[in-house]
Amino acid sequence: MGCSSSLPADRNSGRLGALNSEVSGSNDAKNLRVKLVLLGDSGVGKSCIVLRFVRGQFDPTSKVTIGASFLSQTIALQDSTTVKFEIWDTAGQERYAALAPLYYRGAAVAVVVYDITSSESFDKAQYWVKELQKHGSPNMVMTLVGNKADLLEKREVSVEDGMEYAEKNGMFFIETSAKTADNINQLFEEIAKRLPRPTPS
Amino acid sequence: MDTADIFLGLHDFLERTRQPSAADIVKSIKSFIVGFSNDAPDPERGSAAVQNFFKNMEATIRCHPLWAGCSEEELESAGEGLEKYVMTKLYTRVFAQSSDDIKTDEQLYEKMALVQQFVQPENLDIKPTFHNETSCLLAQKELQKINMCKAPRDKLVCILNCCKVINNLLLNAAIASEENPPGADEFLPVLIYVTIKANPPQLHSNLMYIQRYRGQSRLVAEVAYFFTNMLSAESFISSIDAKALSMNEKEFEKNMESAKALLSGLSTDFDGVNVQNGENEAVILSTEQEKPRCWPQNASEVPAMPAKPPLTQTKDEKAPIIIDKESIYKVPSLLDLENKGASKLLEEDQVCRIIQEYPYLFAHAGDLTINEVEDLLVNYKQLVFKYICLAKGLDPPAISSHSDSRKQVLDHVEAGKEPNYTRKMERDVPEIFIKQTDDNHSPFEVSFFSSSSQGEVVLPETVG
């Protein structure tokens, strides 16, 4: 129920296209390319957050060629650096949990999403945080996101609980609503700021 | 870039390397291929050597006078051409060569052959909204093309096309049902379902081949994402158990057992054959002394595979199969009879009589009155009984059919839907069995090389 009308605008454009155009844009200090993986129970709105982010700042050059489970979006920061997010969505159902390492391997950022109207999804989020702490790269920027913040009357997880858990685990925390677009851009901007910058060689 | 572009890329690459000034490049490529072929095969070392060679050659090309003033795209295309050329040359040397890969291929193939008999969309968390058998079939066909090409990129494109079909299916379904746009929660389950149903032979080897020999600089971003999904599907499938499909242990084992029975031909039960929506066919071949055996043929599932690896062979150690052509009696299955009847019905104009016998056949729901429901129910029950009796009456098999009438049936049935087993069973199958017993190399190879195809490029014998 996150983002009823969001569909990638150019879903049918492009062919398998530009398989390789990414190569040239390798990382330098001013233009970062980062892999971001989304984790969280199914139905918490992972893909809606991304679609909102990508659609909200529609970039006609972004190549959404195959589907919505992978999207990329570039943002410009105030210090004139650009960050290109390559966003990898994962299947949140329990039966696919064991496959997650294939996706978060090599990711610079992990965004763990739960639904504030489901304490179960918050438990699941904590499971992912532990998993990442155990098996993820130690330099990974980890973020905890409470989505569906527009559904206040159904809230099951308090802001304090989310914040406290995130702080304890050294994560950035934010509540978002993919439906109203609340805090979506802030989420990604905040992540971009926290990225370790490559040291110029 | 689509396939045509890459084809041009290769073409352009070969054209350029024909020029005298390309002599150094040609020499490097030739000596690499020769050197590689002389080394003992080792996937890890081979992969590193190839990747390193690509990297160096691309750097060389970048600075080479022949490519001076070329755009980034043209250089990219040269890189693709190089990769395609080299890997096509090395293909037989590196594809599915390690015994580990071959073993994994066989296990995976067998697992999918079993699981595909009973897995349902809901076992994988596919919502009914997002299930569409036709689109799934299309996606399967894309994936099955993976064995028709040799270059890593071309194989990768088969996977990406499969993913694309699935994504289109999901997007259309989401729009139609006003659901949220689909993400990985929807995508991965369908990909797994499609993979199981497609069961492309040597899937593991294909994935390893792409991983090892696709230029690393090109296996990035979206392509890397969808490739990872495929790896992930493989990983899920290879460890499928009761829990992974939300079945209880007993149910899962029962399903696996009956799937095994079906595949190994131990089942003599006609009804048991009909595990999934009537696509499976069984033909009973019986020798005079032996008990009837049956081979499932599932042509619609594996269109690209003329010689399906016979799982039967490994299963039937106890009873070596001796098939005496003289003593084979084919018994028509229910579906055969149905098709035969259907074709007869088409020949003669019996529609009027049918209407008299079954008054509701052409009725619309809106035409029915409450009073007619009882009548309809009686009619239905009679039909069901008749059907069951006829089905039971078919067992034990005793009829020998005339191949003429069977041929007629085949001719009338829509191509592709009816497994073309009749003639296959008479000749091919025994041959395959014989072949497989003295050649334990790879059951897939025959069909593999026999499939000449799109995407395959005839390369000149030498560069330059």
UniProtKB/TrEMBL annotation, chain A:
<dbReference type="InterPro" id="IPR001806">
    <property type="entry name" value="Small_GTPase"/>
</dbReference>
<dbReference type="Pfam" id="PF00071">
    <property type="entry name" value="Ras"/>
</dbReference>
<dbReference type="GO" id="GO:0005525">
    <property type="term" value="F:GTP binding"/>
</dbReference>
<keyword id="KW-0547">Nucleotide-binding</keyword>
<protein>
    <recommendedName>
        <fullName>Ras-related protein RABF1</fullName>
    </recommendedName>
</protein>
<dbReference type="GO" id="GO:0003924">
    <property type="term" value="F:GTPase activity"/>
</dbReference>
<dbReference type="InterPro" id="IPR005225">
    <property type="entry name" value="Small_GTP-bd"/>
</dbReference>
<dbReference type="InterPro" id="IPR027417">
    <property type="entry name" value="P-loop_NTPase"/>
</dbReference>
Automatic annotation (TrEMBL), chain B:
<dbReference type="InterPro" id="IPR045046">
    <property type="entry name" value="Vps9-like"/>
</dbReference>
<dbReference type="Pfam" id="PF02204">
    <property type="entry name" value="VPS9"/>
</dbReference>
<dbReference type="GO" id="GO:0031267">
    <property type="term" value="F:small GTPase binding"/>
</dbReference>
<dbReference type="GO" id="GO:0030139">
    <property type="term" value="C:endocytic vesicle"/>
</dbReference>
<dbReference type="InterPro" id="IPR037191">
    <property type="entry name" value="VPS9_dom_sf"/>
</dbReference>
<dbReference type="InterPro" id="IPR003123">
    <property type="entry name" value="VPS9"/>
</dbReference>
<protein>
    <recommendedName>
        <fullName>VPS9 domain-containing protein</fullName>
    </recommendedName>
</protein>
<dbReference type="GO" id="GO:0005085">
    <property type="term" value="F:guanyl-nucleotide exchange factor activity"/>
</dbReference>
<dbReference type="GO" id="GO:0005829">
    <property type="term" value="C:cytosol"/>
</dbReference>
<feature type="domain" description="VPS9">
    <location>
        <begin position="102"/>
        <end position="246"/>
    </location>
</feature>
<dbReference type="Pfam" id="PF18151">
    <property type="entry name" value="DUF5601"/>
</dbReference>
<dbReference type="InterPro" id="IPR041545">
    <property type="entry name" value="DUF5601"/>
</dbReference>
<dbReference type="GO" id="GO:0016192">
    <property type="term" value="P:vesicle-mediated transport"/>
</dbReference>
